[in-house]
TrEMBL record:
PANTHER family: SET DOMAIN-CONTAINING PROTEIN (PTHR48458:SF1). One of its GO terms (biological process) is regulation of transcription by RNA polymerase II. SUPFAM superfamilies: FYVE/PHD zinc finger (SSF57903), SET domain (SSF82199). InterPro entries: ATXR5/ATXR6, SET_dom, SET_dom_sf, Zinc_finger_PHD-type_CS, Znf_FYVE_PHD, Znf_PHD, Znf_PHD-finger, Znf_RING/FYVE/PHD. The gene is BnaC02g00720D. Residues 38-88 form the PHD-type domain. It comes from Brassica napus. This is [histone H3]-lysine(27) N-methyltransferase. Coiled coil: none annotated. Residues 221-343 form the SET domain. It catalyses: L-lysyl(27)-[histone H3] + S-adenosyl-L-methionine = N(6)-methyl-L-lysyl(27)-[histone H3] + S-adenosyl-L-homocysteine + H(+).
Length: 355
């Protein structure tokens, strides 16, 4: 019989925090703490407030969080690059893009002066035949995840998740939770979303239900939670994952965005964007959550971040409620870390100085 996550959580101890000491260097989540005595901010020239001094991972230059523009209000998780080293995307040549498009669709250029003049009758006939070309792209169905066949491997995967949840003093939940004092379930209605939310098709609902059925019998996606000295807990594939695989539903407590304006949790996910900002909702996996809590976000403002993205968070209307699903955007190999775009749909989160 398959081991459940509840059984593993009951006997799992938290991960012991280890100091990341490299001789005379101490790093805590990207912030320099007593790193070097001569490190100074490149903006203000001061070396004071070392706990607020960020050090670029490429050029080793220091910057106070308050001296950066825009101001960095939270300590970045993982690698941090200064503006000079972030390598913005180059401006693409429009002519080259046009040539590629024309070549792909086999479009040939011609001189308008060489078009023969048509009679009135031929012109009318030509207009009748001219109809807009409509291309219909076949929608691709979401795929259910494929659990690892080896039961020992599955148990090892669950132990890594249980250890991470226990370390953060969280309880496992694969659903959205509505706690008294936060947002009620009645606030999560897709009709409140600005412009509406795409409805999850019937066949994809079947895929979601199939994944939930596997959860109930101890089947989970082939993923492990690993601890990185810079990024903290992250998620790696423990087996191949195909493109468009439904990896997990983003789970956690549902709360109003206004209540979390100053929250320092690094995994808050947008759930519902209402026309009334006071009614907008977020998912906060700080008390309850699943493996989605540990999937890393990437910086969508530089080429290196975008190359790392291999999954995305998509909001769907399911039975009139908004839910967030994590879906693979390409084939993922074993050992590859999972990354999604912070700004998957609203393009508003300031990630210029994030990995």
């Amino acid at each position: 019989m398959a081991t459940s996550i509840a059984e593993i959580m009951a006997v799992t101890a938290p991960v012991v925090d280890q100091a990341q000491d490299g001789g005379d260097v101490t790093v805590t989540r990207g912030v320099v703490v007593d790193r070097y005595g001569d490190v100074a901010c490149e903006k203000c020239g001061s070396g004071e407030k070392g706990d607020e001094l960020l050090l670029c991972d490429i050029c080793d230059k220091g910057f106070h969080m308050r001296c950066l523009r825009p101001i960095v209000v939270r300590v970045p998780i993982g690698q941090w690059l200064c503006v000079d080293c972030s390598d913005p995307l180059p401006v693409r040549c429009m002519c080259l893009s046009q040539r590629k498009i024309m070549h792909f669709f086999r479009i040939e250029k011609f001189d308008v002066t060489e078009i023969p003049e048509l009679s009135q009758e031929e012109t009318i006939k030509h207009k009748r035949k001219s109809r807009p070309l409509t291309l219909t792209k076949r929608r691709r169905r979401l795929l259910p995840f494929v659990p690892s066949k080896d039961p020992n491997q599955r148990d090892a995967q669950l132990r890594t998740l249980a250890s991470a949840l226990t370390t953060l003093k969280m309880k496992y939940s694969n659903e959205l939770t509505y706690i008294p004092g936060m947002a009620p379930r009645s606030a999560n209605q897709s009709m409140f979303e600005i412009g509406g939310v795409q409805v999850l098709p019937k066949e994809d609902i079947e895929t979601l239900e199939q994944c939930r059925a596997m959860h109930r019998v101890g089947g989970y996606p082939p993923l492990v939670v690993v601890e990185d000295q810079f990024q903290g807990f992250t998620v790696e594939a423990d087996g191949p994952i195909k493109d468009l695989t439904l990896i997990a539903e983003y789970a956690g407590d549902v709360d109003y965005l206004k209540n979390r304006a100053k929250d320092d949790c690094d995994s808050i996910m947008t759930l519902l964007l209402s026309e009334d900002p006071s009614q907008s909702l977020v998912i906060c996996p700080d008390k309850y959550g699943n493996i989605s809590r540990f999937v890393s976000g990437i910086n969508n403002h530089n080429r290196y971040g975008k190359k790392m993205q291999n999954c995305k968070c998509v909001r769907y209307s399911i039975n009139g409620e908004v839910r967030v699903l994590i879906v693979a955007t390409r084939d993922i190999s074993k050992g590859e870390r999972l990354y999604y775009d912070y700004n998957g749909y609203e393009h508003a989160y300031p990630t210029h100085h994030f990995l």
